[in-house]
Amino acid sequence: MLANENWTMQKQKQKRRRVIVQVGILLIIAFFSINALLTLKTYKPYAEQNVAMSSTLDTGFVALSYFGVARKSEQPLIGIDRLHEHLKALKDQGYVTITQADILAYYQSGKPLPAKALFLMFEDGRRDTAIFSQKILEELNFKGTMLTYPENFKKKDPKFLVPDDLIDLEKTTFWEMGTNGYRLAFINVFDRYDNYLGELDPLKHAKVAPYLSRKYNHYLMDYIRDEYGVPKESYARMRERISYDYEILEDIYAKQLGYVPRLYILMHSNTGSFGNNDRVSAVNEYWINKLFTMNFNREGYSFNKQGSSLYDLTRMQPQAYWHTNHLLMRIKYDINQNVEFVQGDADKHRNWETIKGAAEMMDETIVLTSLPQDRGLLRLKNDKTFRNVSLSVNLKGNRLGMQKIYLRADKDLTHYVAVAIFNNSLYVTEKTGGAEQELYKLDLDSHDGKIPVSIPQDKKAAEMKALEVFARYAPSASQAKIYTERLQEKSGEDAPTVDEGADQYVPVISPHQKGNRNVNLTLKGKDLRVVIDEKEAAAVKVSALNTGLVYLETAWGGWGFSQRNLADDVYDGVFEQLVIMENTGAEQEAVVFDSRRKSFDGMIFKAKQYWNIVLDWFMPRTPFDEQDK
Questions:
Q1: Does 45 fall in a domain?
Q2: Were 571 and a residue from 71, 168, 234, 556 both cysteine, which residue would form a disulfide, CB within 3.0 to 4.6 Å?
């Protein structure tokens, strides 16, 4: 009995301690949250900052549009820290934000803009965007435009801002309003096997997105068509359907906001007009001219100059995975002007010579950003060359692209041994004066033990997913029953496997698909051993036996399709916890380079990492189904 009482008292003490710790953590979180929500500053327009104006040189303006902001970067939402890094770098370059009124005056009356003018937008009207970006705008004295879909106002979805929120944002002086249109919806949708899916709302689209190809369109951009591409509606019905969206948009904004935002973004962009069909384009053009004073009609490039139309402006949508130099690299080649890239830790940067691209040393990581359609290249500065080397690193650049390590390299890279991960495959190569020779190649899906899927199996999975979605969201019980019966029939169909002789399905790598590989290299004499994720990936004999230098290289992986960024040809190689040692065979090998944090500095860094883990536990982010726009 006494033992039970002691056990009960001990459990109660543990509970009290746990509650005290949790309350303490919650109080800390509450403090930072309240501080984040309070607005104590007022936006000061650039004219009040004594910004140098140029009356003779038209430098135009850069337009950036972020999809949304979250506490941590998770495609497609950019994290607070990454957004701050982006905008702080632009501030340090001398950029100031301009307003919609400034753009109108620039085009309509020729009013000059600051030499470095930035127009900043945040799309889709997400509540977390407003919460997480407010303090950054205040700190940098930046002004942004919040774009919304008025259809979301009536849904009462807490993810999205409502008119009262928008009015409060305007009162802070750091925001003005724009619109993405009445709704986000998709028409004429086909999967990658040309199965016709028809019209999809964002929820259905997100569910089947893994099986879609490029063959779909936005609600306002075309006639609604059948599986043969034949319009299912007359011209009059098409005009009525499209006009309805503009009319209801006008009505909702006028009633609930008091005015219709004058900035519009037509979805999709990059059509060359205002739709994929001339008659559809003419209807959109009529309403755009009637309701709005400016329209961002294109996406992919950031630079706007006079001579363009106010209804054909262009914007760039930075992605959540872009490091700061990625953004600066894109802007540099858009504006064709010099840009100062960020370097990060100066002490670590002095260990490397940047030959191509841009390098940032941050925390325990080297981020090497390539030139557009080209590469980034770093050389480890060292008076001594090495023949035998041990190297370990976490490669965290995205799967679409190349991260490469050169060993035993000479200065002009005519001799070397190299190990690369390129588009999710391992390559071992060497060069001994002639052309680069491939010694070994390994598909890393195979290395991971993934069972290959056949094209018939993938096609069946795509068709089953569509039937599952249509059954779940059917407008009536009778339709749901029909879809469910078809789903059961489809599940019973035979789909030959690769082992049974069917062709393998090889997925297209998305440009924003994350990569994360732990790589260990041991090069001694003629023997090169490669271990990836604690599993041997290669044991190769090499013939390049000279001593040499160490290089890091990155390169873009080709034209990866993304409806949001058709023109992104820059790649960030991410080399985390890079350790290079001279492989002498001694018990204590000589460290050549180590990017890991040490002693007290390392303890602080680890503490911050653990704190983020605690925050993730208390404040898990609601998963967001990406809508590829």
A1: no
A2: 556
